[in-house]
UniProtKB/TrEMBL annotation:
Pfam families: Na_Ca_ex
Spans traversing the lipid bilayer: 42-62, 74-92, 104-125, 137-156, 185-207, 219-240, 246-268, 280-301, 307-330
Protein source organism: Novosphingobium malaysiense
Protein name, per record: Cation transporter
Subcellular location: Membrane
Classification via PANTHER family: INNER MEMBRANE PROTEIN YRBG (PTHR10846:SF8), SODIUM/POTASSIUM/CALCIUM EXCHANGER (PTHR10846)
Keywords: Membrane, Transmembrane, Transmembrane helix
Membrane topology: Multi-pass membrane protein
Domain Sodium/calcium exchanger membrane region, residue spans: 4-151, 186-329
Domain of life, per lineage: Bacteria
Main location: membrane
BP GO terms, sorted: intracellular calcium ion homeostasis
Length: 334
């Protein structure tokens, strides 16, 4: 048990150390390339911070034969990312965070509702005779990959539209170049990925030692650990004054997590991951869709009132859905 916990926390520590470097290099790339901070957060930071989910998922299904860890990690990360919005709002004391970001994030959040909800439906319908496969690969997995590409293409075209807001200006930093920023980004991303590859083995050891269900371990512990990069990068982005980069990273990571599920299914050689994983994960998926919907309401309505000057009703709603879904997966997971 002690060894399992030490391995688990060692992976978290490595990820937490590499996270700030990702943020700084992403911020530098935005300054030096002319790309918007929202786009850098959606594509570059979201991809890099989601590499633990990718490596954890593949190693879970291909090496550890733990489809519940893989599915729980991906869907649990979606919930964890949306809970981080509450942290952003609490840290954004002068003005609510949804009042500081571009409403174009509604597009990404909307695709999140579609993709996460679709996975939740698949976890249920494959048990009702709708498990269509070619070999061991579910026919739904290529559809997930296609939907991800459509979402990224839509976000890209939206980003190209003329903006009414003035272009952001940055002060030049001595000795800073685009090539150096990209090198730092790649190095930090590799460190994050390496730590994420070991997480499922520590998670399985914890589940066995503590007597926990693997679906619960995947949804809570492993998902929290693989979401450490998003947490660190998001907080750092907000402190650098880029709320758009922070929100873009979280929402982009959710889309990437669903892409990871499709890749996990291809890597899982024993059948469809949607059939092998516990149907209790559908609760997590539907909770993620509800939370993304709540965020869309926040981005449209832009409420500014807070309870005790710390948390808004949007934040309370997000927390309530997260806690209820976590308790449900603990009770009914496999």
């Amino acid at each position: 048990m002690v060894v399992a916990w030490l391995q688990f926390f060692a992976c978290m520590a490595v990820i937490a150390v590499a996270g700030p470097q990702l943020t700084r290099s992403g911020h530098a790339i935005a300054r030096l390339s002319g790309m918007s901070q929202g786009w850098v957060g959606l594509i570059m930071l979201a991809t890099a911070t989601s590499l633990p989910e990718l490596y954890t998922g593949i190693s879970s299904v291909a090496l550890a034969n733990a489809p519940n860890i893989a599915m729980g990690d991906a869907l649990g990360s979606c919930l964890f990312n949306l809970v981080m919005v509450v942290v952003l709002d609490a840290l954004s004391r002068d003005e609510a965070v949804w009042r500081r970001v571009d409403q174009g994030h509604i597009l990404t959040a909307g695709f999140g509702v579609i993709l996460i909800g679709f996975v939740g439906a698949l976890l249920l319908v494959v048990r009702e005779g709708f498990d269509f496969r070619i070999g061991h690969v579910s026919l739904y997995s290529p559809l997930l990959l296609l939907l991800y590409v459509i979402a990224m293409r839509a976000a890209f075209h939206y980003e190209q539209r003329p903006k009414a807001l003035a272009q952001e200006t940055y002060e030049a930093v001595e000795g800073e170049t685009l090539g150096r920023a990209v090198q730092q980004y790649v190095l930090a991303a590799l460190v994050v990925a390496a730590a994420g590859a070991w997480l499922p083995f520590a998670g399985l050891a914890l589940a066995d030692a503590m007597g926990w269900k693997t679906s619960f371990v995947g949804t809570l512990l492993v998902a929290a650990a693989t979401s450490i990069p998003e947490l660190v990068v998001t907080v750092m982005a907000l402190r650098l004054g880029s709320a758009d980069m922070a929100i873009g990273n979280l929402l982009g990571s959710n889309l990437f997590a669903i892409l990871v599920i499709g890749i996990d299914d291809i890597a899982y050689g024993q059948g469809s991951i949607f059939a092998a994983a516990s149907p209790a994960h559908a609760v997590t998926a539907f909770a993620g869709s509800i939370m993304a919907g709540i965020l869309i309401v926040a981005l449209l309505y832009r409420p500014g009132n807070r309870f005790f000057g710390v948390i808004s009703w949007i934040g309370l709603a997000l927390l309530a859905v997260y806690l209820l879904s976590s308790y449900t997966i603990y009770l009914h997971g496999h």
